[in-house]
Amino acid sequence: MMPTRVLHLVMYAAQALLAVSGILLAVMLYFMTSDDPFAVVNHPWQSDMLHLHVLSAPPVVFLLGIYAWNHAFPYLSTRVREGRGSGWTLVVLAAPMILSGYLIQVSVSDGWRKAWIVLHLATSILWIVGMTVHGLAHWRARRRARI
Q1: pLDDT tens digits for range 81-90
Q2: How far apart are the first and last CA of the chain?
Q3: 120 C-beta neighbours (distance < 10 Å), count
Q4: Region 90-99: what's the mean pLDDT?
Protein backbone atom coordinates (compact mmCIF):
# COMPACT_ATOMS: atom_id res chain seq x y z
CA MET A 1 0.00 0.00 0.00
CA MET A 2 1.27 3.45 -0.95
CA PRO A 3 1.87 5.90 1.91
CA THR A 4 -0.98 8.35 2.25
CA ARG A 5 1.22 11.46 2.01
CA VAL A 6 2.82 10.26 -1.23
CA LEU A 7 -0.58 9.28 -2.61
CA HIS A 8 -1.96 12.77 -1.86
CA LEU A 9 0.96 14.47 -3.58
CA VAL A 10 0.87 12.23 -6.66
CA MET A 11 -2.90 12.58 -6.93
CA TYR A 12 -2.89 16.36 -6.66
CA ALA A 13 0.02 16.67 -9.11
CA ALA A 14 -1.67 14.38 -11.67
CA GLN A 15 -4.98 16.20 -11.31
CA ALA A 16 -3.25 19.57 -11.61
CA LEU A 17 -1.67 18.48 -14.91
CA LEU A 18 -5.05 17.26 -16.16
CA ALA A 19 -6.89 20.39 -15.01
CA VAL A 20 -4.34 22.86 -16.40
CA SER A 21 -4.20 21.08 -19.77
CA GLY A 22 -8.01 20.97 -19.88
CA ILE A 23 -8.40 24.65 -18.97
CA LEU A 24 -5.79 25.71 -21.53
CA LEU A 25 -7.41 23.52 -24.17
CA ALA A 26 -10.85 25.01 -23.44
CA VAL A 27 -9.44 28.55 -23.65
CA MET A 28 -7.79 27.75 -26.99
CA LEU A 29 -10.95 26.12 -28.37
CA TYR A 30 -13.61 28.52 -27.17
CA PHE A 31 -11.95 31.88 -26.51
CA MET A 32 -9.31 32.19 -29.23
CA THR A 33 -9.60 32.56 -32.98
CA SER A 34 -6.89 32.27 -35.58
CA ASP A 35 -6.03 35.08 -37.98
CA ASP A 36 -5.90 32.50 -40.77
CA PRO A 37 -9.42 31.73 -42.03
CA PHE A 38 -8.23 28.29 -43.21
CA ALA A 39 -6.61 27.31 -39.87
CA VAL A 40 -7.73 24.06 -38.29
CA VAL A 41 -6.61 25.15 -34.80
CA ASN A 42 -6.93 28.44 -32.95
CA HIS A 43 -3.50 28.28 -31.30
CA PRO A 44 -0.26 26.48 -32.26
CA TRP A 45 -0.26 24.57 -28.93
CA GLN A 46 -3.89 23.45 -29.18
CA SER A 47 -3.12 19.94 -30.44
CA ASP A 48 -0.36 19.56 -27.83
CA MET A 49 -2.81 20.51 -25.06
CA LEU A 50 -5.35 18.03 -26.42
CA HIS A 51 -2.74 15.25 -26.45
CA LEU A 52 -1.52 16.15 -22.95
CA HIS A 53 -5.08 16.22 -21.62
CA VAL A 54 -6.14 12.93 -23.23
CA LEU A 55 -2.92 11.13 -22.25
CA SER A 56 -2.92 12.38 -18.65
CA ALA A 57 -6.54 11.30 -18.03
CA PRO A 58 -6.03 7.48 -17.80
CA PRO A 59 -3.38 7.74 -15.05
CA VAL A 60 -5.71 10.04 -13.07
CA VAL A 61 -8.58 7.56 -13.47
CA PHE A 62 -6.26 4.77 -12.28
CA LEU A 63 -5.13 6.91 -9.33
CA LEU A 64 -8.77 7.64 -8.48
CA GLY A 65 -9.31 3.92 -7.99
CA ILE A 66 -6.28 3.66 -5.71
CA TYR A 67 -7.31 6.84 -3.93
CA ALA A 68 -10.85 5.55 -3.37
CA TRP A 69 -9.49 2.35 -1.86
CA ASN A 70 -6.88 4.06 0.37
CA HIS A 71 -8.74 7.25 1.27
CA ALA A 72 -12.45 7.44 0.47
CA PHE A 73 -13.59 3.97 1.57
CA PRO A 74 -11.71 4.06 4.91
CA TYR A 75 -13.20 7.50 5.70
CA LEU A 76 -16.72 6.24 5.01
CA SER A 77 -16.41 3.80 7.91
CA THR A 78 -15.36 6.53 10.38
CA ARG A 79 -17.23 9.41 11.95
CA VAL A 80 -14.90 12.03 10.51
CA ARG A 81 -17.03 14.97 9.34
CA GLU A 82 -14.41 17.16 7.64
CA GLY A 83 -14.56 16.78 3.90
CA ARG A 84 -17.48 14.35 3.86
CA GLY A 85 -19.78 16.62 1.80
CA SER A 86 -17.11 17.57 -0.72
CA GLY A 87 -15.94 13.95 -0.81
CA TRP A 88 -19.41 12.70 -1.70
CA THR A 89 -19.65 15.44 -4.32
CA LEU A 90 -16.45 14.15 -5.90
CA VAL A 91 -17.72 10.57 -5.83
CA VAL A 92 -20.92 11.63 -7.63
CA LEU A 93 -19.06 13.78 -10.19
CA ALA A 94 -16.40 11.20 -11.06
CA ALA A 95 -18.49 8.88 -13.23
CA PRO A 96 -20.12 11.48 -15.53
CA MET A 97 -16.86 13.40 -15.85
CA ILE A 98 -14.84 10.32 -16.83
CA LEU A 99 -17.54 8.80 -19.03
CA SER A 100 -18.22 12.04 -20.91
CA GLY A 101 -14.47 12.49 -21.50
CA TYR A 102 -14.33 9.14 -23.26
CA LEU A 103 -17.61 9.65 -25.12
CA ILE A 104 -16.39 12.98 -26.57
CA GLN A 105 -13.66 11.02 -28.35
CA VAL A 106 -15.90 8.38 -29.89
CA SER A 107 -19.11 10.29 -30.68
CA VAL A 108 -20.00 10.46 -34.35
CA SER A 109 -23.12 12.61 -34.10
CA ASP A 110 -22.56 16.37 -33.64
CA GLY A 111 -25.52 16.59 -31.28
CA TRP A 112 -24.24 13.88 -28.95
CA ARG A 113 -20.69 15.21 -29.15
CA LYS A 114 -21.86 18.69 -28.06
CA ALA A 115 -23.91 17.17 -25.24
CA TRP A 116 -20.89 15.20 -23.98
CA ILE A 117 -18.71 18.32 -24.21
CA VAL A 118 -21.19 20.36 -22.14
CA LEU A 119 -21.45 17.57 -19.55
CA HIS A 120 -17.66 17.17 -19.44
CA LEU A 121 -17.03 20.90 -19.04
CA ALA A 122 -19.68 21.26 -16.32
CA THR A 123 -18.58 18.24 -14.28
CA SER A 124 -14.89 19.12 -14.72
CA ILE A 125 -15.37 22.67 -13.45
CA LEU A 126 -17.35 21.34 -10.48
CA TRP A 127 -14.64 18.70 -9.91
CA ILE A 128 -11.87 21.32 -9.77
CA VAL A 129 -13.90 23.37 -7.27
CA GLY A 130 -14.80 20.23 -5.29
CA MET A 131 -11.18 19.03 -5.10
CA THR A 132 -10.08 22.45 -3.90
CA VAL A 133 -12.77 22.55 -1.19
CA HIS A 134 -12.06 18.94 -0.22
CA GLY A 135 -8.31 19.49 0.01
CA LEU A 136 -8.79 22.63 2.12
CA ALA A 137 -11.18 20.80 4.47
CA HIS A 138 -8.62 18.05 5.10
CA TRP A 139 -5.81 20.56 5.41
CA ARG A 140 -7.74 22.53 8.06
CA ALA A 141 -8.58 19.31 9.95
CA ARG A 142 -4.92 18.22 9.97
CA ARG A 143 -3.88 21.69 11.10
CA ARG A 144 -6.40 21.69 13.97
CA ALA A 145 -5.22 18.24 15.03
CA ARG A 146 -1.64 19.53 15.37
CA ILE A 147 -2.61 22.49 17.55
Answers
A1: 777 888 889 9
A2: 29
A3: 21
A4: 95
